[in-house]
Amino acid sequence: MELPSANILPCPLSAGWEVVEQRQIEPSQGGGFSAGAYRPELDELWLLSDATSGSISRWRGLRDRGLGGLEPLPPLRLNQPQPMDGEGLVLDGPNIWVASEGRLQPAHAAGLLRYDIGTGMLRQSQALPPAWQLQTNRGLRSNGGPESLTRLGHWRRPADGGRDAPAAGSA
């Protein structure tokens, strides 16, 4: 297998990992992905686009056919009222959770967004703490906000009616 250029790898090969498989995708299938999740019950790979319009590219067949045999599914458009910089992705039952970084131009706040997994409709937007909000002279800079999202099992907060929620992480 031909290895990708060292300048595009997330860390050096000398760190102890290896590229096992890679696949080129057609531009119509998306690109510039910032997060991924796998739905084992459906054998679907979901990849969050880095585009501000918000969409998830989906493929089926990873378990049985590997990357080379993935069958593209229709993308899921995420409907939100403003552009976003989606970075983290968690699939949880009927919900899609996305961590979004803040931006000054175009202005939008960093937040934790919850979408309907079937329709992509925005169900909830929770602003991140004030210290994380990007301001002219304070807050997390562009590409300095939440870069990942992890589901920490079931936990409940009385303040939000007991709904489960994932935790956003900053790089």
Question: What does this 3D model show about the protein?
Answer:
By secondary structure, the chain is mostly beta strands. It has a domain at 37-152. The chain has one helix and ten strands. The longest helix is centred in the middle third of the chain and has 4 residues, at 62-65. The mean pLDDT is 77.
Descriptive key words:
10 strands; globular; 171 residues; four-stranded antiparallel β-sheet; 1 helix; single chain
Concise synopsis of the structure shown:
By secondary structure, the chain is an all-beta fold. The protein has one helix spanning 62-65, and strands at 33-39, 44-49, 55-60, 71-77, 85-92, 95-101, 111-116, 122-127, 146-150, 167-170. It is built from 1 helix and 10 strands, in the order E-E-E-H-E-E-E-E-E-E-E.
State the assembly state of the protein chains: single chain
Structural class: mainly beta
Helix and strand string, N-terminal first? EEEHEEEEEEE
Instruction: Note the overall shape.
Output: globular
Largest sheet: 4 strands, antiparallel
The strand line-up of the biggest sheet is 1-2-3-4
Say how many strands there are.
10
Question: Treating each run of at least 4 consecutive H or I residues as one helix, how many helices?
Answer: 1
What Rg do the Cα atoms give?
A: 17 Å
Strand content: 35-45%
